[in-house]
Amino acid sequence: MESRKDPASLDLTSCDREPIHAPSAIQPFGALLVIQDEFIVSASENCGRILGIATDELLNRHYTAAFGANCESLLEAVKRRDEPTAPTMVRLAGSKRWVTATAFRQANRVIVECERIDNDEVQDIASLKFVSQKHETVLSYLAFVAEGLRLITKFDRVMIYRFAEDWHGEVIAESKTMRLSSFYGHHFPATDIPQPARRLFLANWVRMIPDISYEPVPIKSIGEAPPLDLTLSALRSVSPIHIQYLTNMEISATLTLSIICDGRLWGLIACHNITPKYLPAHERSVCGLIAKMVSSRVTAIEVASIIEAREKLGVFVRSIQAEMATGVDLSELIRLHKHSLWKMIESDGFNFIAVDDENSTSDGQALEPTQAQELIKALEKSSVTVLHVINVQKEFPVWTDSPYFGGIIAVRAGHDWLVWNKKESVRTVTWAGDPNKAEATPGALLTPRASFADWQEQLRGYSTSWQQHEIDFAEQLYQIIFAGIESSTVNVEQPAQYLAKLNTLIEEDLDDLQGHVSL
Questions:
Q1: How far apart, in whole angstroms, are the C-alpha atoms of residue 503 and residue 508?
Q2: Which of 133, 154, 207, 235 gets the highest tally of CB atoms within 10 A of its CB?
Q3: Is 70 within 8 Å of 94 (Cβ atoms)?
C-alpha cells in the first residue's frame, strides 16, 4: 500500500507542475474499477473490503463478476454524459450487499466508483430551500448560504472564498462553531490553491476528504496501463502538500463546493471539520446541486447589479452618437459633456488630453499637466487603445509619486486620450499567515506554511477595482464613438434576457433538487 510522504520531502515550488489529476491512488472510502470493452482492466486494491471480491479476482474479468447484470443501466447512462452519473444503487454479484455507484468516461474506458451504503438517511428538502432565497447583494446571499449549509451538513465551519483577479482569495462569508477561530475577512495567497487545483475545482462541483490521515489505496492494472486521469473522480487521492496544509490548519475533514460563474471559477465553499467526517454519495450529489444553484444565483445577482448602470451608459452613448451625427467637433463635444463623462465611471477625475493642448479639458481631481504629459508618452509607447489598471506605477514605474496615481482607465481618441483617474486606496489586508514567508526544511525544500495566524500588510499604490460595466463603457467609447466603428447602442436587452434565463435555470435546479431528494 502506498504510504503518505514525509512532510520534509514536499516541494512546494512544484505545486503548479504537480500532476494531481493522476495520482495512481484513491482515498479508501470507496473502490474504483476501470472497464474497457466490458472487461475490468484496473481496480483499486481495496475491492475486497468494499465489494467483497479480491482485486486480483476481478482483473481481466467481465464486469458482471462484480455487479452481475445490475450495472447495465449505469454503463448505458454514462455513454450520454460528460459529467459523472448520479449515484445509483447497485447490487453486488452473488451477494445481498448494495453499493452506491457513479461512473464517468475517459476515452474508451469507463471508470466506476463504488461506496458502501451504511445508512439510508436523506436530508429534508425543506432545509435546503435556503439556496433559492433572493437577496439584493452577493455578500448578504452568501452569508445566508454559509449559515444554511453548516446547519444541514453539520460541519464545524463553512467559509465562502472569492477569488481576485490575481487568484488570491478572500473569505467573504463564514459560519462556524464557537470552538473554531474565524477566517472571515482574511486573505489567502494564490499559492494556497495553485493552478492545477483550480482546474480540478472547475471540473468538479464537489470534492471531499473525509479523513486527512488516510493511507492512499493504489490502483492495480493489467500490464502496462497508461496513467489514469482521475480529474472527475470523487475518490482521487489528494496531494501530500495539501494534506500537510490541512494538518497545519488543524482540520481533519473537508468538503469543498465550487462556485462557477460564466464558466469561470468565481470562488469556493469550504466546509471544515475538526474530526473525520464522511458524507455519503447521495448527500454529496445534493451538495453538487446546491453548488450549481448558488453559482446561478450569484451570477444572477451580479448581472442584475449592472443592468441599471448599463442602461444609463446606453442612454449616454446614444445621445453622444446623435450629436456626433450632426457634425459637432469631438473636442467641443467632450468639453460640453466632460462632467457627464466623468460621472459615467466612478473616479476622482476625468481628463481629455489633446495633442493640441488648447483643446485639453478636465473635471474633478484631474491629473496635473506634467502628469498628463508623462501619461501620454507612456501610453503612446505601449500602443494600447483601451487600458484599465489599478496600479499605474506598477505599469509605468518611471512616474513620480502622486496621490492621484492609483488606477486609470484610458481610451484612445485618434492622437488624443480620455483618462479617468483614481487615487490610491491605502488599505490594510489581513492574511491567514504571512503569504511571503517560505518555510524551508533541512533539505532546503519548501513546505506548506505552518502558521495561519493573522498577518497584516499595508497595500500602497493601488486604487479600488474598476467595475466590469465601466470597462465595457470604455470599450464602447473607443469602438463606437472615437474609432468610428458602426454600432447602435450599448446592448441593455442582452443582460436582461440573460438574467431572465438565469432565474429560469435556478427554478429548474430547485425542481431537480426536490425530485432528487424525494427519491
A1: 9
A2: 235
A3: no
Closest CA to 138 of 269, 265, 301, 264: 301
Placement of cell 484610458 in the chain: 410
Q: What is the pLDDT of residues 1-56, one digit of tens each?
A: 344 545 444 444 455 556 677 788 999 999 999 999 999 999 999 999 999 999 99
Question: Which of 377, 384, 346 minimizes the C-alpha distance to 467?
Answer: 346
**How far apart are alpha carbons 419 and 80 in whole angstroms?**
52
Neighbour tally for 218: CB within 10 Å: 17
CA distance 415 to 331: 12
Q: What is the rounded CA–CA span in Å between residue 374 and residue 5?
A: 55
Is residue 482 within 8 Å of 413, Cβ to Cβ?
yes
Q: DSSP H helical segments within 191-346, as ranges?
A: 195-203, 240-248, 281-325, 330-344
pLDDT per residue as tens digits for the range 455-465: 555 567 788 88
Q: Tell me what percent of the residues of the chain surpass a pLDDT of 90.
A: 33
> Where is average pLDDT lowest: 57-71, 245-259, 305-319, 346-360?
305-319
- Per DSSP, the three-state class of 246 is helix
Going by C-alpha positions, the residue among 465, 511, 469 that lies closest to residue 490 is: 469
Q: Name the nearest CA neighbour of 122 among 270, 292, 280.
A: 280
List residues bridging with 256 in a β-sheet: 207, 270
Residues paired with 162 in a beta bridge: 170, 267
Distance (Å, rounded) from C-alpha 296 to C-alpha 132?
10
Q: Which helix (H) or strand (E) holds 158?
A: strand 157-163
